[in-house]
From TrEMBL:
Name of the molecule in the record: DUF58 domain-containing protein
Cross-referenced InterPro entries: DUF58 (IPR002881), vWFA_dom_sf (IPR036465)
Signal peptide segment: none
Domain of life: Bacteria
Residues of the DUF58 domain: 44-251
């Protein structure tokens, strides 16, 4: 993973530039709606972020802990968007050298939406398995988020969880989650239901490689696991293609039903396709009033 993180760091300027261009295209095509918030009566504490105005820090609460905290109302939390990126081993895979890896595309999608949200005045934070990330210094918020993603990649392992711990998501916040969702269905079910009960709204970006949908292999093929699974060798793998396609379709339908039932949004993206249609649909969903 360290090698992958270093490679990601070298590509970061191009990813940032691409994300900014995409955000400009999206901003030109649509206009954001101001979201209805909740009242100012109920408040909560969150860790202060780098660059936080001093007058927002609650010094009494901060004195009780090892770090500064900000007191915010539920209305303010409702305008917060958390980014979660799946850094598990399967996200490093791609079926061909001409395709981007799933992790690269996930980061591009997240940064593109973050760029647009920041332009619209939203507060965008980065979530890790241990909580809200303190972002490294950089000239602007988007670069801080990008550097934070690089740091998470450098400190991740192939066995990291694909999904965020719901308890770490602030109430009423919105969560933008990018993952290939190659984890047990029970984990997905439990995560989405717990987020809905929190309550928090999730926008799930399901990122996949085209080979994961079509199984384009023939003859005897060995599949090697990326998260310590044992290898699997299959003879005449093309004979399984019809049944495999049916299983893929059934799981896609299950994902749609589960996210919708919990009040969340699911967007599919395949790495051989342009990111723009996915982001247009996602932006339309995130711009709706709730």
């Amino acid at each position: 993973m360290a090698c992958a993180a270093q490679t990601l760091a070298t590509r970061l300027p191009d990813l940032l530039l691409h994300a900014s261009h995409i955000a400009t295209t999206l901003a030109a095509g649509r206009h954001p709606q101001r979201r209805a918030g909740w009242g100012d009566t109920f408040w909560q504490y969150r860790p202060a972020q780098p660059g936080e105005p001093v007058n927002r820090i609650d010094w009494r609460q901060s004195a009780r802990t090892a770090r500064a905290h900000v007191r915010e109302t539920e209305a303010e939390a409702a305008q917060t968007v958390l980014l979660w990126c799946d850094f598990s081993g399967s996200m490093q895979w791609r079926s061909g050298n001409t395709l981007p890896g799933k992790l690269d595309r996930a980061i591009l999608l997240l940064l593109s939406m973050a760029a647009l949200l920041l332009r619209n005045g939203e507060r965008v934070l980065l979530l890790s398995p241990s909580g809200i990330v303190s972002l490294p210094p950089a000239p602007n918020a988007l670069e801080r988020l990008a550097l934070g993603l690089c740091e998470l990649a450098a400190n991740s392992s192939p066995m990291d969880t694909a999904l965020p711990p719901p308890a770490l998501v602030p109430r009423r916040a919105r969560l933008l989650l990018a993952s290939d969702l190659l984890c047990p269905d029970t984990h997905i079910h439990d995560c989405l239901h717990q987020l809905a009960a929190h309550p928090a709204r999730a926008y799930v970006l399901h990122v996949s490689d085209p080979a994961e949908s079509t199984l384009p292999y023939t003859g005897r093929t060995e599949f090697c696991g990326l998260e310590h699974e044992p290898p699997l060798e299959l003879p005449h793998v093309q004979s399984l293609r019809t049944d495999y396609a049916a299983l893929v379709a059934a799981r896609s339908q299950w994902l749609e039903q589960t996210t919708s039932h919990c009040g969340h949004t699911l967007a599919h993206h395949q790495t051989d396709q342009s990111p723009l249609p996915t982001l247009l649909a996602l932006h339309a969903q995130m711009s709706q009033r709730v």
